């Protein structure tokens, strides 16, 4: 073993006094840490969390009698979408409905349904009447607005399978009625 050319340093030859000084320093740190602890947490009873009620379900269009004259053929709910249209916190359902035809393209109606608590769903507004002889392409309910692409015919000579007019329409609840806010002009497809 080779010896170091450097003289021994004081901390390399420990004596009992060194151990005693280290123990005293550690005891001082522990005591100081005990004095500087954070306040103890206390629990206080508070009112129970306010829970929101389960949101009301949107009316089911399968249970509604729609104002359509289908000659006993029945009706088909082609599309539906829920949304709070009047801002009362309860969702309405907007349904696109037409007669149950075996073939062809029967005209559609767009209806707004509501349902009071405990009551059966009912039609509260007709946005598009099937008597207008329109079919509905794209359809959406977003941010209190109903929008639809309405397809129609420029004349009786146009085959009922192939609409040649398209119009974009939208409705919003204002005051006490739905107001059509766009799409007054029809354009050819």
| CA distance, first residue to last residue | 101 Å
Mean pLDDT: 81
Radius of gyration, in Å, reads: 38 Å
List the quaternary state of the chains.
Answer: single chain
Low-confidence stretches: none
What general form does the structure show?
rod-shaped
Main β-sheet description: 5 strands, antiparallel
Proportion of residues in extended strands = 25-35%
Give the structural class: mainly beta
Helix content: 10-25%
Total helices: the number is: 1
User: What is the chain-wise order of helices and strands?
Assistant: HEEEEEEEEE
What do these coordinates show?
The chain is built from 1 helix and 9 strands. 11% of the residues lie in helices and 34% in strands. It is mostly beta strands. The longest helix is centred in the first third of the chain and has 20 residues, at 16-35. The strands form 2 sheets. Strands 5, 6, 7, 8 and 9 form a 5-stranded antiparallel β-sheet that branches. Strands 1-2-3-4 form a 4-stranded antiparallel β-sheet, with no helix packed on it.
């Amino acid at each position: 073993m080779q010896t170091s050319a450097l003289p021994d340093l004081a901390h390399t030859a420990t004596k009992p006094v060194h151990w005693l000084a280290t123990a005293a320093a550690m005891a001082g740190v522990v005591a100081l840490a005990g004095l500087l602890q954070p306040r103890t947490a206390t629990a206080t009873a508070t009112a129970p969390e306010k829970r929101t009620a389960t949101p009301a379900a949107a009316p089911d269009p399968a249970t509604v009698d729609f104002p359509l004259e289908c000659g006993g053929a029945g009706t088909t709910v082609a599309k539906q979408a829920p949304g709070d249209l009047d801002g009362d916190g309860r969702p309405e359902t907007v349904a696109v409905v037409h007669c149950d035809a075996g073939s062809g393209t029967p005209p559609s109606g767009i209806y707004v349904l509501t349902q009071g608590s405990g009551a059966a769903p009912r039609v509260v507004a007709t946005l598009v009447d099937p008597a207008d002889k329109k079919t509905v392409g794209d359809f959406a309910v977003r941010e209190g607005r109903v929008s639809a692409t309405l397809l129609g015919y420029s004349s009786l000579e146009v085959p009922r399978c192939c609409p040649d007019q398209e119009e974009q329409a939208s409705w919003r609840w204002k005051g006490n009625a739905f107001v059509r806010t766009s799409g007054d002009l029809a354009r050819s497809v």
